[in-house]
Amino acid sequence: MHHLLFLLSLFVVAVTAFTESANCPYKCRCDRRRYVYCNQKHLLDIPSGIPVNTEKLLLSENEIKNDRDTDRQLSRLRSLEILDMHKNKLTAIPTGLPNSLTEISLRNNNIKFVGKSSLKGLSSLTNLELDYNNITNQGLTRLAFADTHKLKELVLSYNALTEFPEGLPNSLVVLQLDNNQISHISVAAVERLTNVRILDLSNNKLVQNSVDPGAMVVMSGLRSLYMNFNQLAEIPTGLPSGLTRLELSNNNIEYIYDTENEVHGSLGRLSSLTTLDLRANKLRNVKDMALSSLRLRSAEFHDNPWQCDCHLRYFKQWLSTATRTTVVSSLSEVSCSSPSAFVGVTLMDLDIEALNCASRTSTRDLMSISNIGPHGFFLNWVNHEDTPDPPFINRQLMYGPLKCQNCSFESSEPAHQVANQEIVSHLSSFSFQDMTTAVQFNPRNASVQVGMLQPNTHYAVCVLDSQQDANSLSINHCRDVWTSAIQPTLTPHDIDDSIPLWIVILCCVAVLLVVVGIISAIVWKRRNLLNTKTPPVYSGNREDPLRYPEAYLPGYTRTMNYMVASPQPRGIMYGTNMTDRTYAECGPATSTNQRSIRRDSAVDARMEFEVLLKPNDDTRPKRLHTPMSSYSDSRDDGTLSTNHTVLSGSHDHGSPPPTYDCLHSFECVGHGHATSLPNDVPPPQLNHETGSYV
């Protein structure tokens, strides 16, 4: 009987296996769990004949594309729960997917768009993998997840998102956005994600101002935050207090603060934190009490340029005690990068007494006084280049008048004892106004103005940092300064008396040189004007005294015809003008087209003198004055007419002398008669070499 039942069961199994293999598509493999394996078959399309009751369909690593046949083949599988189509050639999510789907993997495709119909009706979907595609913020619409009310895990890694996507369902628990280009997280994008427990934002482009204030606080359910490989310069602000894991490795974080403000965050509020990863940053210092509230189980601090000075004492003490309950891996790699004396030395190997600051031991060398006046001065502070002060260190300036006017700061007596006894009557505090913050932004130096001081007074000036006790004040923290006396006000008389004699002499010499220069310039200019004047041109209007000497003797009468250009339409007028005056008396006439007659009698007097000084020339006519008796006034109008007689040959006494026409347009003004110059007499010409007329 038992053998019969065993043979019957074998028969049923064989029949079932044969039936299932008969219904399985070509190139695919099916099993009785309703799983169909069509992966890695180089399929171009979804094969037909897939059983409608298939619950899991594996079509990964093929070359399937989007088309109507793909949508039709998938929509008929009404019992399908798991669909794996990763590493195909899809550009969009197939439409019409069955509502029974709970998991979809479409990673490693070329999907660029996820619209409102892509996931429509998938109310049972819990896991969606869309990593390694080309999805952008424009290609991911806000209504794409409107029907996915049960979606728990969404993977959008390795896409092209530049901002935190909006419209994600509030049912999400795991959200992976790593390896994108996200540089901004807004409150509107995360305000619904109160149930997210794991958020991966590593390998993006987040900087300090990328997260809007309060954006992370609304994610109250967040427990694990991954922000590795970004560009954060500070610990993010507003981290949820329920965080248990925080990974911030490979960023640009330099300091760990104990409190939070609008610029930087802190770890003080994260009392539930158990895992902290800050390796491969730019950590230099940790502020006192910054890690005191943490109960870490694992911490990473290696691969950072630690500055091993007095501000790192707290961190060394914390490491010494925390390692009893905390696993600090690679503790041997927590080493010093400065000062130069400790480069490469492991922090745990240094004695705590060796961690000192030059700003405390040699304060006087880092401070200088300038611009000293009667009521104040400037204090210039320069950070030590090897170990600059961290930004959470503030400086406090203390100053006061010295009782002892001749005391010296070279004394080895502690300054606080001298201050209470001899030096300072009272010390008033002066804030440095975040001096070290100014150092970071202004080449590591700071300057502060001190005012309201008494003139001509000896002051003590001391500097401490915010982590120093005032009782630790020593002579090395102080300098002294004398304020200048007030200068008396000078009257104008005092100012004149106070001018040195050499300045007065120099001013007089300068004035004299200026006056001499002006006079020389005027004289030089006048001489140039005289030298550049054009000599008179003898155009034939004057009678040559060498050729016509009779014209320059008294009693000679000449006449000239002249034309007058009348402005009236009467045309040319002719007239005769007679004179009984010499050429030297009447001077040259003006142009014939002018109405006025020039009567400058001294213009050509030079010519008359040339005649008188010229040697006798026998070839020329002799000149002789007529006797006074030859003068007759025969004119009826009472004017005197004088005849100049020239003796030539056998002329009679009463005969008229030879007459000469005035050359060209010469006009002789006077009374008398006019005679004409013979036409065969040539006009005189000027010899430019000798300066005389020929």
TrEMBL record:
Instruction: Please verify whether the record's keywords include Transmembrane.
Output: yes
Region ranges (Disordered): 614-658
Q: Which Gene3D superfamilies match?
A: Ribonuclease Inhibitor
The protein here is known as LRRCT domain-containing protein
Keywords on record: Leucine-rich repeat, Membrane, Repeat, Signal, Transmembrane, Transmembrane helix
- Keyword Repeat listed? The answer is yes
List the Pfam families. LRR_8
Point out the signal peptide segment.
Answer: 1-17
TM helices/strands, residue ranges: 499-524
Q: Where is the composition biased (Polar residues)?
A: 639-648
Q: Which organism is it from?
A: Clavelina lepadiformis (Light-bulb sea squirt)
